[in-house]
Specification:
4 strands, single chain, alpha+beta, Alpha-Beta Plaits, 3 helices, globular
Length: about 110
């Protein structure tokens, strides 16, 4: 049974966008045929806390639907890649919660 996943990658900020895209293509090829991830480049940002010698990183968020059995090799490939500072893979379950308007939240408290 396929599940929805979201992966946040933090690449070294010294990498060019073409190099990042090449790595993403290699990672996503491990997910199997027919898997077309949605990729959102956030660009270079300052890290909240330094990771090793890195002060900034290039953020990319990817969403896809895949079989759970392909994830161990996928995550292993990410961990072995030198250009990736950090990554996080999560399962997306159900619909995302709808934001509560601030005015409605204040009225409920009264």
């Amino acid at each position: 049974m396929k599940r929805n996943y979201e992966v946040v990658y933090i690449f070294e900020s010294a990498l060019e966008e073409a190099a990042v895209n090449e790595r993403l293509t290699r990672f996503h090829a491990l997910l199997g045929e027919g898997v077309t991830p949605t990729v959102n480049h956030w660009g270079k940002r300052q890290l909240a806390t330094p990771i090793g010698r890195h002060q900034t990183g290039y953020y990319v968020v990817s969403q896809f639907e895949a079989e759970p059995g392909v994830l161990p090799e996928f995550e292993r490939a990410i961990k072995l890649e030198d250009g990736v500072i950090r990554s996080l893979t999560v399962v997306i379950e159900g619909e995302p919660p709808k934001p509560i308007p601030v005015v409605a939240a204040v009225e409920e408290e009264e």
